[in-house]
Amino acid sequence: MNAAASHGAPSRPVTHRIGDEWLMAYAAGTLSEGQSLVIASHLSYLDDAPARISAAEAAGGALLERLEAEYMAPDALAKTLALLDGPEAQPVPSPAAPKSRAGTKGDPLPAPLHAWLGRGVDELRWSFLGPKMKKVDLWRGGPNDQRLWMLRAGPGIDIPMHGHSGTELVLVLKGSLTDPHGTFRAGDIEECDGDIFHSLRTGEDEECICLALTEGPTRLRGWIAKLLQPFIGL
Q1: Contact at 8 Å (CB) between 4 and 11?
Q2: Does the structure show a pLDDT above 80 at 93?
Q3: What does the alpha-carbon distance between residue 32 and residue 22 come to, in Å, rounded to a whole number?
Q4: CA 30 to CA 21: how far, in whole Å?
Q5: What does the pLDDT read at residue 197?
Q6: With pLDDT > 90 as the criterion, what percentage of the chain qualifies?
Q7: What is this structure's pTM?
């Protein structure tokens, strides 16, 4: 029995994984706090996460070795010293081993997310999003007005057709989501760009909880949804 199956997590393998370009950026520390948290949470579901991160670090190092040397600007040292006096950078979340995935027994939050929040899923301040749907805002910042939030929806719920102003990352923490690209279950992550419009449906067996990182306002279709948008804050 693998580590995932022995600790209450899904025994099925994660079938929708994040791309290598995200892993390289994560390993290099160039992602925003919200992006890093999503990637670390996703990696906590993968038994081969350490190997994938090591490969990403090696690939990044190889790319650096191929770069031609460039002369530093005259004020480069002064700018570097000025950065040392600036605010302390936030540490990048680390992916936990699969055996420590959940923050507490029965809580679907992956360990990096639970540690960052400092509380369990039922302790969060959920607000109304729609019939049998709730959301909680977690973080906002980074480039392109990034927003980190969570969705909690009942079984068999249709999520209206929508798109985003930039990249959308959705990590399923509990239950499942289905859209034209497939079915996503706990540990699976979906990436969509700003050109994609899609509707989703939660699985029929249990509630669905997702962690989402979006850029800019959500683009909704349908006049009722657009009227409600100012009230739901997406």
Answers
A1: yes
A2: no
A3: 12
A4: 11
A5: 75
A6: 49
A7: 0.76
